[in-house]
Design goal:
Largest sheet: 4 strands, parallel
Order of helices and strands: HHHHHHHEHEHEHEHEEH
Number of strands: 6
Strand content: 5-15%
Structural class: alpha/beta
Strand order of the largest sheet: 1-2-3-4
Number of helices: 12
Distance between the termini: 37 Å
Helix content: 25-40%
Shape: globular
Radius of gyration: 22 Å
């Protein structure tokens, strides 16, 4: 096992967050017997990547007593997640919870298996962000939201996206089940025919639903993303939105339909969306990027008087899978304070602006630095 680790290209020196490195070392120490065959020793480089998250799920399954852990957060794993709160004595589960909180940028303070007030505060803040019941107790929904990008797939939402045409019966079913907003695609993907059909928008509006347009042409692997493709997507999105008659203030979502890790974001996704931004400006979109140093969101909006408002949502899965935390009101006029490209903004300030516009939650990403 040690020899295998020495011969691969994984880093075992810290090049990232020392606390993440500490967690990686503890996962190797405590769970190497189960990690050896599927993963080997995970890198201890301080970077939260796919292998680290996978190792955490393996560790959770070991503590749950699952005979053959597989690293997949399936219903059987979810059903065995304990509910933890202040004073919980299941120290190994509490340690794993502390790791998961830190990976999601909610620092519990220590990694000692003690569920104290600091852990409760971190859990509560995370629950508030993901619109869960903020009681400070970590139950199944909290575990799911911490460990997988989909969160609890059974969670009720008010927005969804559909690859199928919204016919009157389907629109009424959505309305009857509490949905208020439907996401529909404005271009065909490379494999599926799922864009908005003629007369479909009238059907959606007649049912009392609003709609948000989604741009996705493939976008389901690293190879799709490049500066060249970003520029192409900008032009396609603007043309498609105009052709459908979407009004000023409409939000367009550009999907990233796979689990990107930090290195891939730097090498491919950021150049893709930077080029998309540049092309939109060149076409008269006049966009500006807003970001924060922690808890990254990628936002593009059009300045006053421009044709479209576009928001780039870097999602870890399709919008349907996170619809429980994307609650939108479409067609609103959003007034942003003056910002320069790359200028940071406090999370609380940006959140207030979005909430005033009816955008109550955005998908949080795990990326620490957006631009040099």
């Amino acid at each position: 096992m040690i020899f295998k680790a020495l011969l691969n290209m994984d880093a075992f020196v810290n090049i990232g967050d020392p606390k993440i490195r500490e967690i990686q070392q503890k996962l190797n120490r405590d769970y190497y017997r189960i990690l050896f065959e599927p993963l080997g020793l995970i890198p201890c480089d301080g970077i939260y990547a796919r292998s680290t998250n996978k190792a955490l799920i393996y560790a959770l399954q070991v503590e749950e007593g699952i005979p053959k852990p597989n690293g997949s957060f399936a219903p059987s794993t979810t059903s065995l997640c304990p509910t933890l709160s202040v004073g919980s004595t299941q120290t190994k589960f509490v340690s794993l919870l502390q790791y998961a909180l830190y990976f999601n940028e909610y620092d519990p303070g220590r990694f000692d298996g003690v569920f104290d007030q600091g852990v409760k505060t971190a859990v509560t803040n995370f629950q508030k962000f993901t619109k869960l019941t903020a009681n400070g107790a970590a139950g199944k929904q909290t575990w799911a939201s911490l460990l997988v990008s989909t969160g609890d797939k059974n969670r009720k939402g008010t927005a969804c996206d559909c690859i199928t045409t919204i016919i009157p019966a389907r629109a009424q079913t959505l309305k009857n089940n509490g949905y208020t907003t439907v996401g529909r695609y404005i271009v065909e993907t490379s494999k599926l025919s799922k864009k908005i059909k003629e007369g479909e928008l009238d059907t959606i509006f007649a049912a009392g639903l609003s709609v948000f347009p989604i741009f996705q042409y493939s976008a389901n692997s690293l190879s799709y993303f490049s500066a060249t493709q970003g520029a192409i997507d900008a032009r396609r999105a603007l043309v498609a939105a105009n052709n459908y008659g979407f009004e000023p203030g409409t939000i367009i979502y550009f999907a990233v339909d796979y689990d990107a890790v930090d290195g891939e974001v730097t090498s491919h996704l950021l150049p893709h969306f930077q080029a998309l931004h540049n092309k939109m400006e060149g076409l008269g979109g006049n966009t500006a990027l807003v970001f924060m140093d922690q808890g990254m969101y990628v936002v593009t909006y059009l300045k006053q008087g421009m044709l479209l408002l576009a928001l780039l949502a870097i999602c870890l899965q399709e919008l349907a899978e996170i619809s429980g935390i994307i609650l939108l009101q479409i067609g609103l006029s959003i007034k942003f304070p003056p910002l320069k490209l790359g200028q940071g903004m406090e999370l609380s300030r940006l959140t207030t602006i979005f909430r005033q516009a009816g955008i109550w939650a955005l998908k949080k990403c795990q990326f620490q630095h957006l631009f040099p």
